[in-house]
Amino acid sequence: MTNTLRALLGASALCTLTVAAWAEPTTITVATVNNGDMIRMQGLMGEFNALHPDITVEWVTLEENVLRERVTTDIATKGGQFDVLTIGTYEVPIWGNQGWLVSLNDLPPEWDKADLLPAIAGGLTVNGELYAAPFYGESSMVMYRTDLMEKAGLTMPAAPTWADIRTAAEAMTDKDAGIYGICLRGKAGWGENMAFLTAMSNSFGAKWFDADWKPQFDQQPWRDTLTFYLDLMNNFGPPGASNNGFNENLSLFQQGKCGMWIDATVAASFVTGADSTVADSVGFALAPDNGLGKRGNWLWAWSLAIPAGSDSVDAAKTFVAWATSKEYTALVASKEGWANVPPGTRTSLYTNPEYQSVPFAQMTLDSINAADPTAPTVDPVPYTGVQFVAIPEFQGLGTAVGQQFSAVLAGSSTLDDALAAAQTLVTDEMTKAGYIK
């Protein structure tokens, strides 16, 4: 068993584009995350079915942590349950390097690979091979209630500091009215609370590892990060925050219970959409910084990839090309408006005058461009990745550390104990994996 396979299995435990034609009907199974854009795509499948009546698409839609566990186990063990996987910028380079994914370099010319945003395409490419097609790309940013800011006599800077965020959170909190100044991720998971906290820690001067791969949770910048986060959440956050991930905080914000929410830029269309009670009172700003040269924002793409073990590669490519095409974007725009198209993947979208009028379009692009996965921290580090470390072991390590930090937020552990436990468990695993000599 390779180290990569062992690490990944351990983590699981802790358009009119046509690529090929075939004579017989084909069924493909798509594993995806239960985010709004993915649910919207399923509602538009009638368009795909009309174009490709010989392809039947079956869906397995899962909560984020469960999806990651299922697809990781399946691809690492060559289980063959899925023909299309919804995976992220963390998995693609690792799995592509292992030969576990099918190259998408041969998607039709009209799919227009050159149109992909360089920051997004770069994270999905290994040795010149594109191993996943981005469905939507994102960074993170501040979403805030303009009415509550005005009521508090404050103005949100376009590029706020963490001190600005604390001031605003305190001023907007009205617990008697059920309004909390800030909502942030607290649910344990390498892609849940640790996505937020790792990105946040970069702006505090923290890092997962030094140049010799020694864990850094016993250093002051991580203590500063967690102390500030806990102060925000304990004083100005909603109750039960240790159970809240993206979808839970989205619901709270839409219900008018959050003054601010720092999370994925893709949420912008949902907090300003028909399901939001505060749609007309939402502003946007860059993720905060501490004056150290790094902002607390991440870089991510939910992308569609084809496992090398699929028996229906041609049909899977046809679906992937359709779902990630410019034609699909135009389809969503025609049905639900430009504000609701999948963002963050194509240059052409951000040069489209109709999309430029969407209030969060430019801030999303600026946030994506502000993240640098090749230099994510204040000090040099031996890894790439902004809100993750691009090594196979991180999936398990991130979740284990996330559980420690979520327990502190829940009140069942202390900051000292959590940092000490994080330092010990990460050191042990990195030593076993051979990173630390």
Structural key phrases:
2 domains, three-stranded antiparallel sheet, alpha+beta, D-Maltodextrin-Binding Protein, domain 2, 437 residues, five-stranded mixed sheet, globular
Characterise the protein shown here.
With 437 residues, the chain is an alpha+beta fold. The protein has 2 domains: 3-138 and 299-358, D-Maltodextrin-Binding Protein, domain 2, CATH 3.40.190.10; 140-298 and 373-432, 3-Layer(aba) Sandwich (D-Maltodextrin-Binding Protein, domain 2), CATH 3.40.190.10. It has 19 helices and 10 strands. A 5-stranded mixed beta sheet has the order 2-1-3-10-6. The chain has a 3-stranded antiparallel beta sheet with strand order 8-7-9, sandwiched between helices. Strands 4-5 form a two-stranded antiparallel ribbon. β4 and β5 (129-130) form a beta hairpin.
